[in-house]
Amino acid sequence: MAKHPVPKKKTSKSKRDMRRSHHALVAPNLTTCKNCGSKKMQHIVCPSCGFYDGRQVLNVQA
């Protein structure tokens, strides 16, 4: 019969929560579009006007 590893001691709430300290969700970092002023994610084409890095990349229907 195979032996399975079993913890010798119960993990305390403090240790468990310290391990989970990096699991929190982080809100996305939004910037304003330099062309139209709407909020957009960094390094991504603006979904409202289609501009990226000062030039038109997508044709967006109004």
Provide a descriptive summary of the structure in words.
This protein is an alpha+beta fold. The protein has a domain at 30-62. The protein is built from 1 helix and 4 strands, in the order αββββ. The strands form 2 sheets. Strands 1-2 form a two-stranded antiparallel sheet. It has a two-stranded antiparallel sheet with strand order 3-4. Strand 1 and strand 2 (39-41) form a beta hairpin. The termini are far apart.
Q: Beta fraction of the residues? A: 15-25%
Number of strands: 4
Cα radius of gyration in angstroms: 24 Å
Q: Which structural class fits the helix and strand makeup? A: alpha+beta
Helix content: 10-25%
Low-confidence stretches: none
On the 0 to 100 scale, the average pLDDT is 92
- Individual helix count: 1
Report the major sheet: 2 strands, antiparallel
Strand order, biggest sheet? Answer: 1-2
The string of secondary-structure elements, in order, is HEEEE
Short account of what is shown:
It contains one helix and four strands. The chain has 62 residues and is α+β, with helices and mostly antiparallel strands.
Helix-strand blueprint:
Blueprint: H1 13-19, E1 30-32, E2 39-41, E3 51-52, E4 55-56
